[in-house]
Write a structure and sequence with these properties.
Shape: globular
Radius of gyration: 13 Å
Largest sheet: 5 strands, antiparallel
Strand order of the largest sheet: 1-2-3-5-4
Number of helices: 2
Order of helices and strands: HEEEHEE
Helix content: 25-40%
Structural class: alpha+beta
Length: 109
């Protein structure tokens, strides 16, 4: 996997994705290799390495990102009864691009 799958593959269009919701600054789409029956990823279109590297200048982007996550989480909860919203940091973060997982169901693997 590349260092930044989201910039290198998804946002560049090299890897096609099934979009759930998109704004000027944010993309939410179905995970290309899901770990859950419902597995959606939300990413900023601007490269930000991680939640802990955010800067004050990113506040507007984060509001947009959280708005998208809220809408997608509400949709998943309505359709499935529950969901989890997850982000990873440090060694748990495989791709060094801020991203959130909106998932529902038991892990597939």
């Amino acid at each position: 996997m590349t260092e930044d799958f989201y910039c290198d593959e998804v946002l560049s269009g090299k890897t096609p994705v099934n979009k759930v919701l998109e704004t000027e600054n944010v993309l939410a789409y179905y995970h290309t290799r899901p770990f859950y029956p419902v597995h959606i990823v939300a990413i900023p279109k601007k490269h930000i390495s991680s939640l802990i590297t955010l800067e004050e200048s990113d506040d507007g982007l984060m509001l947009d990102l959280m708005g998208v996550i809220k809408k997608v989480a509400a949709m998943v909860t309505e359709e499935n009864g529950a969901c989890r919203v997850i982000t990873n940091l440090g060694n748990y973060q495989e791709s060094k691009h801020l991203h959130w997982h909106i998932v529902s169901g038991k892990p597939l693997r």
